[in-house]
Write a structure and sequence with these properties.
The chain has about 290 residues and is an alpha/beta fold. It is built from nine helices and eleven strands. Helix 1 packs across helix 2 and helix 2 packs across helix 3.
Length: about 290
């Protein structure tokens, strides 16, 4: 399977039209059609269903599209990593991050690293821990900012200096919004909007205790902004961690007893790092150490 064939395939999949794709690729239509047919013959599957006006991916085509996007992305990243001069670091560092207060610290690390190495570029991927781990495993991400616990048999990590505080984001019209802190017994009958999987953290299960089986999760998501908008419409209270954000009509109330979770900057164990990612890692270690000492 030729890499160029995958690139052609992705353009055709995006345009859903052989003629448009051929024009973009500066190829003749028969040449591009022949390339797609050869790819189908090599894989032994149909990648597109064809009509008079456009072509649509089959299930096998959708699978190949996901795999091809990952391969092309990884190849482009590898190329950028080696595009460095004799003196200055260049290339790209890909970092995945959840939504945390410690993201502020990560941003400060990037800003201070840029002062030393201004030609390095960054690709930031926002997602949950499972998304980020998957992309680290596939080599698409160099680092991931995630909550503990971390599988130390698979990942190296640096502990971030900020703890994440758990609580609920609730309408100011609710009496609970006036509490200084909230107990599990206070939450009976309150519908929740939860980030996917967050309520499954062991500390959170322990905190809920006997009330855990009574949690009424009416919706879940992975972006706090969307969840906060739903809370503003009083669909439910958002259960999660406190961020450096404010949302009109909502108030964050911490849990009692208090729950705090550490976050870590992780990377794959035994991974071969490029010059830019290795320099960034050493810089991050030194930066976090200086904060801890102060």
């Amino acid at each position: 399977m030729e890499f160029r064939s995958l690139q052609y395939f992705l353009i055709v999949a995006r345009e859903e039209n052989i003629t448009k794709a051929a024009n973009l690729l500066h190829l003749t239509q028969p040449t591009l059609s022949r390339s797609i047919m050869q790819l189908e013959e090599e894989l032994g599957v149909k990648l597109f269903t064809r009509s008079n006006h456009n072509i649509i991916l089959t299930e096998d085509g959708l699978l190949l599209k996901r795999r091809a996007q990952e391969l092309v992305s990884l190849a482009e990243k590898t190329k950028r990593d080696f595009q460095r001069g004799n003196v200055e670091l260049t290339g790209e560092i890909a970092i995945g991050s959840g939504e945390f207060r410690s993201t502020r610290c990560l941003s400060k690390i990037i800003a201070s690293f840029r002062e030393k190495h201004p030609f390095v570029r960054y690709q930031i991927y926002s997602g949950n821990s499972e998304n980020i781990k998957e992309r680290i495993e596939r080599g698409i991400l160099d680092f991931g900012l995630m909550m503990e616990p971390i599988d130390i048999s698979k990942y190296e990590y640096i502990s971030m200096p900020i703890k994440e505080t758990w609580g609920i984001l609730i309408s100011e019209t609710s009496p609970i919004s006036q509490y200084e802190a909230i107990r599990a017994s206070d939450l009976k009958g309150i519908p929740f909007i939860s980030a996917r999987g967050e309520h499954m953290y062991p500390e959170v299960r322990t905190w809920f205790g006997e009330y855990y089986d009574q949690i009424d999760i009416v919706a879940s998501g992975n972006l706090l902004y969307n969840e906060a908008v739903m809370a503003q419409e009083q669909i439910g209270a958002v259960f999660g961690i406190e961020l450096d954000c404010s949302y009109p009509g909502l108030k964050f109330v911490p849990l009692s007893p208090r729950i705090e979770t550490a976050t870590v900057l992780t990377w794959k164990k035994n991974q071969i790092l490029s010059s830019s990612t290795l320099a960034f890692l050493e810089h991050a270690r030194a930066y976090i150490k200086s904060i801890s000492e102060n």
